[in-house]
Amino acid sequence: MTVENRWYKQAVIYELNVRGFYDANQDGAGDLAGVTAKLDYLQSLGVDLVWLLPIMKSPLRDGGYDVSDMLNVNPNFGTLEDFNILVNETHRRGMKIMVELIPNHTSDQHPWFQASRDPEHPEHEKYKDYYLWSETDQKFKDARIIFIDYEKSNWTYEPSRGEYYWHRFFYHQPDLNYDNPEVQKEMMRTVQYWIDLGVDAIRVDAPPYLFEREDSVSENLPESHAYYKRLRSFVEAYSPEIMLLAEANQWPEETRAYFGNGDEFHMNFHFPLMPRLFMALAKADRTPIDEILARTPEIPKSCQWGIFLRNHDELTLEMVTEEERQFMWNFYAPEPEMRLNLGIRRRLAPLLDNDQRKIRLMHSILLSFLGSPVLYYGDEIGMGDNVKLRDRDGVRTPMQWDDSINAGFSEVESQKLRIPVIEDETYGYQKVNVKAELEDPTSLLNWLKIMITIRKQHSVFGEGTLSLCSPKNKSIIAYLRENELEKILVIANFSSENQQISLKELCVKNVDFLDVINLYQPLVLEDQLLNLEGHGFRWLKVV
Ligand code: NOJ
Predict the structure, then answer these.
(1) 1 falls in which pLDDT band (50, 70, 90)?
(2) From the alpha carbon of 104, which atom of ligand 1 is closest?
């Protein structure tokens, strides 16, 4: 792939929950037409790639990750025609669109499963091996259970067939059987179908679990990688500008394999980095970030990390040690209801005590660190969460557009909303909403717009190398981003106290700097000593 095609390396990605974004047809849930109606907002924020959480037909028992028809949009969200309009309108504004592919499993409502489970079904013969069936629930014992708060086993008994079926997630999400070549073909066809509908990128859900094998943990198996390489070859031949993003929630060493030799996924999330950003902030000590970066291998030139602060799931603590997990839970999720599975079901602003300095510090790292930044809808205005809601719904509440009824999200009676709006004193829509923030020049939203604009003026953030400079003071993180065009030194203070740093200690010596965020003013220092206020940060261009 040529350098010009590597658009995803420069992309600012915005993840949104269609069901919670904007209700255009006024039925109480967001829809595709609602996203179309808000594209100007996304464009003005500086978004390059709009990531839609699952939109395929689904009973929505797992936010749409339980698909019942891969070749249709969920009627609750609209029609294929609505999707077509959304794609065209997104492109017309110079943005791109990413959808979800969920290859590992389907809903138990999928016609394939209905036929597979029931020997009396007219199509049973054709579909009987589409899923993994077993007479016992004792196979693949070494595979962990992921949704530990909900499931006791990865096997569930199906009386009509008299056998157990395998599922890595909810019991109502049976895993597809990739040893069946027909299943492999179905997924290729699905990818082709969505490419034909005009999408620019595909997030591949839960890629580590495609195949299972005895005497292994059934994650990251060579068979799975071989399949993804074939998928990539197909995409490369069919539509080479498409980007494939893997959601492999693994340690960096395992994640590396998903990039292959630049012949598997273009992007992969850096899951282990995320909790360590929060740890560094909590401890006012950058060490967790240093450690995970030391474990992060080089990736092929055409590849990219996707980095994020929060997303639609719980803040996962799978890629941390037991001790770190306990620390994170104690610090960020003191109430039991804030915890879910191995994670924390809270949004960014509440996690950071709604402290604007901390929220901006974390965004300044997100926008300048190694990879393409992914923003989660609502975090740009500092939305809150609702831990009383079931599962992960508390971080998927309606977008707060203004202070009118239902936060301007929908005009239906409030009781008819599928997920209620946030109404508490601190984060309620009466106070936290897009309209109010647009009108306030000092708001988080307006600040973020400026920061995104600045990031986009410097290709070094998307494509440059990152070298950690290691000042003695551990509360300071400093890193140099560098490409053939420029060098930018980023310095950030994880502590709430003022810190003085000698720039002589950092990776670049005896140079002058322009303060990128502060209108490119020359940095005037006495004896190279920089004062950084509590939770402060600088982006300094080397001149
Ligand atoms: C990962 C998704 O992010 C999550 O929301 C979903 O529940 C699981 N995969 C299962 O599809």
Answers:
(1) very low
(2) 11
Task: Say which amino acid occupies 536.
Answer: G
Tell me how far the alpha carbon of residue 115 lies from the centroid of ligand 1, in angstroms.
24
243-264 confidence digits (pLDDT tens): 999 999 999 999 999 999 999 9
Q: Is the pLDDT of residue 471 over 50?
A: yes
Q: What is the pLDDT of residues 366-396, one digit of tens each?
A: 999 999 999 999 999 999 999 999 999 999 9
Q: Is the CB of 64 under 6 A from ligand 1?
A: no
Residue 269 CB less than 6 A away from ligand 1: no
* Helices 356-366, 444-456: crossing angle, 10 deg rounding: 20
Q: Read off the pLDDT of each residue in 478-500 and give the average, rounded to a whole number.
A: 97
- pLDDT single digits (tens) 219-241: 999 999 999 999 999 999 999 99
Q: Residue with the nearest Cα to atom 11 of ligand 1?
A: 65
Rounded to whole angstroms, the Cα distance separating 16 from 200 reads 16
Q: What are phi and psi of 501, to 5 degrees?
A: -125, 140
Q: Is the pTM of this model over 0.90?
A: yes
DSSP strands (E only) in 323-425: 339-340, 343-344, 372-376
C-alpha 102 – ligand 1 centre gap (Å): 9
Task: Count how many residues are written for the chain.
Answer: 543
Radius of gyration of the chain measured on its C-alpha atoms: 23
Whether residue 313 has its Cβ less than 6 Å from ligand 1: yes
**Long-range pairs for 511-520 at CB < 8 Å and ≥24 separation?**
511/542, 511/543, 512/542, 512/543, 513/489, 513/540, 513/541, 513/542, 513/543, 514/540, 514/541, 514/543, 515/539, 515/540, 516/454, 516/458, 516/488, 516/540, 516/541, 517/451, 517/454
- Name the percent of the chain lying above pLDDT 70: 99
Q: Which domains does the chain have, with CATH numbers?
A: 4-103+181-455 (3.20.20.80), 111-166 (3.90.400.10), 464-542 (2.60.40.1180)
* Ligand 1 pocket residue status of 62, Cβ below 6 Å: yes
Active site (catalytic) residues = 205, 247
CA 130–ligand 1 middle distance (angstroms): 21
Q: Is the CB of 63 under 6 A from ligand 1?
A: yes
Which one of 70, 205, 311 would you pick to mutate in the ligand 1 pocket, going by the greatest count of ligand atoms within 8 A of its CB? 205
- pLDDT of 94 reads 98
Residue nearest atom 5 of ligand 1, based on CA coordinates: 313
Q: Can you tell me which residue has the tokens 């996203």?
A: 35
- The single residue listed with the structure tokens 């138990």 is 108
Q: Pocket of ligand 1, candidates 169, 250, 311, 316: which has the most ligand atoms within 8 Å of its Cβ, to mutate?
A: 169
Residue 48 Cβ contacting ligand 1 at under 6 Å: no
